[in-house]
Amino acid sequence: MTTRGVEWLSAAADDPVECRMAWASDPRAPYVLAAGRFFDTVTVEQRVGMETFDQLMRRALPFGPAVLDRKAQRVGFFLGSHSEEIFTHHLAQEEGAPPAYRYLGDGAVVVVPGPMPMSGDRYQWLRAPTRRPIANPLRPVALATMLVASAELLARVDRYGERYPSAAALALSAFEGDRPDGK
After folding, report:
1. Angle, in degrees to the nearest 10, between helices 138-163 and 84-93
2. Fewer C-beta neighbours within 10 Å, C or N terminus of the chain?
3. Whether 160 contacts 180, CB under 8 Å
4. Phi, psi dihedrals of residue 102, rounded to the nearest 5°
5. 3-state class of 97 per DSSP?
6. Quick one: average pLDDT of 151-160?
7. How far is CA 131 from CA 1, 35, 122, 135, 179, in A?
8. pLDDT digits (tens, 9 = 90+) for 66-88
9. Which of 161, 45, 50, 40 is nearest to 99 (CA)?
C-alpha cells in the first residue's frame, strides 16, 4: 500500500492520527474503520468473492480495493460511499440469482488489514488502495454483474462435480458414449 493509500484509509477512522500512529508502530495491525464516510463495502463468501475478484481483474473492469478475511472466509469489495442504490439496482437487473451478500454503509464498520500484512495474517489486501479512489459510477455496475456471473459459474462447476466426482467418472462416461453436457 502506498503512503497516499494509507492517508485515504486512515481519514475514514474516527481518529485519523491515531490510526496512522497505530500503523506506523505495527504495519500489519488490522484497524476498524467506519463505512459510509469515504467508502461502502460489499462482502460475500470467500469462494464467490475470489472468483469475482479474478473475473474483475481478467476483464480489466473498474473496481476499487478488495480485502480478504481468512477466518470469516469473506471477501469485501470497496465501493464509493452511498453506492447501495445503484449497486442493488444493477444486481436486480442481472438474469441470474445474486449470491448472498452484506452491504456495509453508514453506521457499519469494516476491519481492514494494515498497510503491510503478511501472507498468514487473518486480514489480507487482495487489492490495496494506492490513493483515494476516483469516483467511478461503473464500479458498482461491474461488481454487481461479476458477482452474479461468478455465482452462476460456481454453481455450474458444482453441478458438474456432482455428476462427475472424479476424472475416472468422466473418462468412463466418455467411453460409454455419454457426453459431459448431458446430451
Report:
1. 40
2. C
3. yes
4. -125, 130
5. coil
6. 89
7. 9, 17, 23, 12, 50
8. 999 999 999 999 999 999 999 99
9. 45
The beta strand positions in the chain, using DSSP E, are 31-34, 39-45, 66-69, 74-80, 101-104, 109-112, 123-127
HSE value, Cβ hemisphere, 13 Å, CA-based, for 42 = 29
β-bridge pairing 39-45 and 31-34:
unpaired
Cell of 71: 477466518
Give pTM, 2 decimals. Answer: 0.86
**Tens digit of pLDDT for each residue in 7-19?**
999 999 999 999 9
Kindly report the number of other CB atoms within 10 A of residue 15's CB atom: 10
> Around 3, how many Cα atoms within 13 Å sit in the side-chain half-sphere?
0
So what's the pLDDT on residue 21? 95
